[in-house]
Amino acid sequence: MVDVVEIILTKYNYLIYIALMTIGFYGMIGKSNLIKKLIGMSVFQYSIFLFYISIADIHGGTAPILIEGEKVTYVNPLPHVLILTAIVVAVSTLAVGLSLAVRIYREFGSLDENKILMGLKDE
Known about the structure:
This protein has helices at 2-10, 12-30, 34-56, 78-108, 113-122. With 123 residues, the chain is mostly helical. The radius of gyration is 21 Å and the shape is elongated.
């Protein structure tokens, strides 16, 4: 029992990421408002970014600057660079989604998924 508590206390960041992913997934699947779906998508994406950056960090690691004669553990900068690129893609995806939501609202007068689908069936 002590081992389980110790594991939970040392790996609390994983529980936070799982909670954020679950909230984001619920927002995408469980809500019918398109803006709430986009917010859920963003929460889900950013929880993955935080998870990826946290597992790339090395305890006691330093910036990858080579100094002659010193033996130091370096942190790999590649995951951080990849996440920066993914953040740009996520912001762009959110911007396109919001612009589509504005266009849908102008066309149907609602952002509720069920009302939009009913409006399509009438035509």
